[in-house]
Design brief:
Oligomer: heterodimer
Low-confidence stretches of chain A: none
Helix content of chain B: 55-70%
Number of helices of chain B: 15
Strand order of the largest sheet of chain B: 1-2
CATH class of one domain in chain A: Alpha Beta
Radius of gyration of chain A: 18 Å
Structural class of chain B: mainly alpha
Shape of chain B: globular
Order of helices and strands of chain B: HHHHHHHEHHHHEHHEEHH
Low-confidence stretches of chain B: none
Strand content of chain A: 15-25%
Number of domains of chain B: 1
CATH architecture of one domain in chain A: 3-Layer(aba) Sandwich
Number of strands of chain A: 10
Mean pLDDT of chain A: 89
Chain lengths: 249, 388
């Protein structure tokens, strides 16, 4: 199995606190993966490192077929390399329409002059409509994103990720605050996306992870505690002690 | 594409029509046409107001659309004024000095001519030497180039340093204000090469048009200012529409998100900061020949703060709002401070507007920010019901 992203021996310290402790983790080009772990396990810091927001003290982050290092690249460069990120809180551009949000995310040249001279093309419009259909917002294209419901905003942000056409999607708690039906729909969207690319979901909600039905990595105190199917990891005694035990307490 | 741009931005046509109508009406009623309902000095005030509208729309693009509260754009305005003022002063002094020297029996050497001009210009600060920065003052073309290049390069270098260090928000405002203050303090010095606190004067006299009446010159500048405003309005409206506008507004609302979409945010900020600085320089170059004088007091940080106040009162994030705000507040300001508004006698105290205008302006600013965040421009939303 080839590797899309390899995080190797990464350590990050914040004021003496080791948020990530020689973390090593790999992702394949087309897979769905859930990352779970208690608060402070380093899930968000892991995403910050991969997307270039946080620089690690040690270790390597190797990306793609060309085996290039993501360390030292800016956030926008990493995004252009094909890593998309969805934040925990839905962050869409609320003052703009759904169509404008998607158009901004759509994979196209990112330089200021290319953008200034950008013209709307039927091809781009088709792509926007295809994505809007996928995320169930085809009827909402002209609406201002700020008017959407919480769930719709989450989907719009996932749609913006898909529009970027990334090779790797990092999705932080996509189901937070969603109703049961909304969760089901979100699961479907993520599963379909994972057919052609790597999708990494950080999630607290075990029920949602179960529904994703994918390989699970458990983080604890900044390193990998266990990896495998959900049933496999939840039967692991250490996992039960540090995570499940605590949450059921 | 052109058609779709106009049809998507109907306010552009309305603005251009109103501006054109205004310019024609003022011209017809001016002293230049002999009607004389509007005095030449008021035509100049109106022309200057158009220049203030021009810098206000630039400020709106950088602040209202891109979210960078620059307190330095009036410095760029002043630099544009100084750049054109240098040529105006040099050429005019030359036109007076050279015929005098030629009248002497021994023809003057080029050095003598240069010394005589230098003596005339720099006598007030006890100098006669031309400083380095006046090297191109004899060329209108090169000084016009300076109007664009100096603010543009300063904005480019300053912006590059500030944006790449990810200085944002109030820290960036303070930094731009520091730049403005430093520039103004520098210009106040007698050895700055720009006549210290005397500044440059006599700018209303256009070299080569000594015979033309000020009434006529004021109309020419009114049209020049209106044309610049119209062109900049269309240009900026085009920049902030479409995808560029999306990205720029995205940077205003959530810079980090735009970065994770793969856009190099710093380049966009630098682009917006620089083009608006250039437009501010052009506005200054049109303003000061109408004002007649420029001195370092014009560049003090308070001027840039006023600019932000105009844009806030007029309505951020819409170009016509900024233009209306600048025109409305600056004209009202000159009415109040120029003794146009009658003092109010309360019996125990007399409110003199020359003193109290700033208080009124401050209170209005706070009131607008708190209660009408959309400003005067927001009133148009009640007139035009947008299809949702």
């Amino acid at each position: 199995m080839s590797t899309l992203l390899e995080v190797d021996g990464v350590t990050v310290t914040f004021d003496g606190f080791r948020a990530i402790n020689s973390l090593s983790i790999q992702f394949a080009p087309a897979e769905l993966r859930a990352i779970i772990g208690p608060n402070g396990a380093g899930k968000t810091t892991f995403m910050d490192i991969v997307t270039g927001k946080t620089k690690p003290d040690e270790g390597h982050v190797i990306w793609g077929d060309r085996n290039i290092s993501l360390l030292g690249m800016s956030e926008s460069q990493i995004a252009r390399e094909g890593i998309g990120r969805k934040f925990q809180k839905p962050t869409v551009f609320e003052a703009q329409t759904v169509r404008q949000n998607l158009a901004m995310a759509l994979k196209n040249p990112r330089g200021p002059f290319a953008v200034l001279m950008h013209k709307k093309t039927p091809k781009n419009a088709e792509r926007i409509e295809a994505i809007a259909t996928e995320i169930g917002l085809i009827d909402q294209l002209a609406r201002v994103a700020g008017e959407l419901s919480h769930g719709q905003k989450q989907w719009l942000e996932i749609g913006m990720l898909l529009a970027q056409d990334p090779k790797l999607l990092l999705v932080d708690e996509p189901a937070a605050g969603m109703t049961v039906e909304e969760r089901e729909k979100t699961t479907d969207i993520l599963r379909r996306a994972a057919e052609t690319r790597a999708v990494v979901v950080v999630e607290h909600d075990m029920e949602f992870v179960r529904r994703l039905g994918c390989k699970v990595t458990v983080l604890h105190e900044g390193s990998v505690l266990a990896e495998g199917s959900l049933d496999h990891v939840t039967s692991n005694q250490t996992v039960i002690d540090v995570y499940l035990g605590r949450s059921h307490a | 594409m052109r058609q779709s741009f106009i049809s998507q931005n109907p306010s552009v046509l309305w603005f251009l029509a109103a501006l054109g109508l205004f310019t024609v009406v003022v011209t017809l009623m001016s002293e230049a046409t002999g009607v004389g309902l509007i005095s030449t000095s008021f035509v100049k005030t109106l022309g200057k107001t158009l220049c203030l509208c021009l810098i206000a729309i630039a400020m709106d693009v950088v602040w209202g659309y891109c979210g960078i509260l620059s307190l330095g754009h009036f410095a760029f305005f002043g630099i544009g004024g100084y750049a054109i003022g240098m040529w105006l002063m040099y050429a005019r002094t030359e036109a007076i000095v050279v015929p005098n020297l030629m009248a002497q029996t021994i023809p003057p050497t080029p050095q003598e001519i240069s010394d005589a001009i230098g003596n005339q210009i720099f006598g007030v600060v006890g100098s006669a030497e031309f400083p380095m920065i006046w090297a191109f003052a004899d060329s209108l073309f090169l000084q016009l180039l300076m109007v664009v290049l100096v603010p543009g390069l300063l904005a480019l270098v300053f912006g590059w340093l500030a944006f790449r260090s990810r200085v944002t928000g109030v820290y960036l405002s303070i930094l731009t204000q520091a730049m403005t203050l430093a520039l103004s303090l520098y210009l106040f010095q007698n050895d700055s090469g720009l006549r210290g606190n005397n500044g440059l004067s006599g700018l209303q006299n256009i070299p080569g048009y000594e015979e033309t009446s000020q009434a006529m010159i004021s109309i020419v500048f009114l049209w020049g200012s209106a044309l610049a405003l119209a062109l900049a309005y269309v240009f900026f409206a085009w920049v902030v529409s479409g995808k560029m506008g999306s990205v720029v507004k995205g940077i205003r609302d959530n810079e980090a998100r735009v970065r994770f979409l793969g856009y190099h945010v710093e380049s966009y900020k630098l682009f917006i900061f620089t083009i608006t600085a250039i437009v501010s320089g052009i506005a200054g170059a049109l303003y000061y020949p109408q004002a007649g004088i420029i001195n370092p007091g014009e560049l003090t940080p308070i001027a840039s703060i006023y600019l932000a106040v105009w844009v806030a009162i007029g309505g951020r994030g819409r170009l016509y709002g900024a233009a209306i705000g600048a025109a409305f507040v600056s004209l009202l300001s000159s009415w109040f401070t120029g003794g146009g508004a009658p003092n109010i006698n309360l019996g125990f105290y007399t409110i003199q507007w020359t003193d109290w205008w700033l208080v009124l302006l401050g209170v209005s600013f706070v009131a607008v920010t708190l209660f009408f965040p959309k400003g005067i421009g927001g009133l148009f939303d009640y007139l035009v019901r947008k299809p949702s």
